[in-house]
Amino acid sequence: MNTASPRTTRVPIQIADSFLIALDDFMRRTRQGRHVSQSVLEMERTPDLDKLRAAAVRVTQKYPILAGRLRRNWITWLPYWELPEPPSGGLPLGLWHGAGAADVLPGSMETTDTQELLQRILMEPLERDGIAFKARLDVVTLKGGACLVAFSWSHLLFDGKGAELLLTEIGRLCEGQDAPYEARETPQPRVTFKEKLLKTKAAINRFKELALIGCHSLGGPRPRQGRGYYRNITLTPEDSARVNSRVDQMTGALFPIAFYVACTARAHDRVFRHRGMQPSGYVVSVPVQTRKRGARGPLFHNQVTVFFFSAVRERLGSIEAAAAAMKQQFAEMSRARLDQSFNALLEVMMRLPSWVFMRVVRSQFKGEICSFFHSHTGAFAPEMTGFAGGKITNAYHLPCLGAPPGTGLFFSERAGRVNVTLSWREGCLGDEERRLLLDQVFEDLFGEKRPDLLHGV
Fold first, then answer.
1. Residue 120 sits in which domain range?
2. Residues of the chain with pLDDT under 50
């Protein structure tokens, strides 16, 4: 991350971005690619490519940060975005067609395995022709006239909800709706450096507690250079209703995070026990949205706060006990405003070079970052029913993870259907282990075994 001329147009990062910057740099330095995710739209038919191409150009003109570069101020050493002149060609747009596709787009390339294609795109650089793009679009036509639109994006620039909002914005631009975007970042109160340090005390104490519990990941603390993989399972509306009812009964509609963290911890513990290991506990950082529900933005930056949960062995014996423990932790951390303390700690660390930042993080847990990645992003862009003239039938996120920790489990919902997404780094999770992990997930989601959901995983 280089410095730039003081006359360059600059946009400051947000506090939560600082960890993502350090993580992305860690993945780059350990040759694991970059911290890129995909948001996938499954569609009934191929979108209008003329509309999509025009929108891909307009969105970069409207938001030049999509081709921005990260720099540091050489006086304060704070990171910021350097905004370029908007690229004339717009976001990169790849065209593909599967074997037997009903609609073969002009100039498209054939792919025999759509999942393999998306996994490969996740590992490729987003930059094109010297332009530092932070996102790209790919359209894959399939049999029966169906289609996939994959939006690949850098976690440096936004989180999953931000990606949904930008996809919604691109959809509006496809329909000629180019209204000014008014949402602004929430201003941070001015406090002295001493006040910031005092505010970090609760977070530091929490990290000390977590270090005593122990942080263990399936990938281990050693970085791995293999590829990233994923499996996404979409539940039927009937099964999704059963899951949502079970979550409401166990943790309440206001605390779904508690249930899903518990479910994820127990699934990983199942694999550890299969390996003949019984770690004392697990540590997971869970992002929580700070955007107002239903708001159109802010689009960019990681608009989240973070809670650090622990899962100790004594509470993992049943999903009921684990979920109750997570709900209690969430309530205690909320009352103590630990999210504000974690933010204060990140703000103090923002000036650290990325490699120093990550060394500090990993030193807390003997080289680990956390035990696994996890998020529950809720409903995927419920306001967006179509995209570039095509109806959306399903939508979900596909994160590409680094190691450590090397594995992650993610949940979202689209039009009343729950999506369960497992992501892992090569060498961190074997085939049998993957099935065991998902078997435990579905047992906890439904309260009974569901072998029918494991076909093809």
1. 10-174
2. 2-7
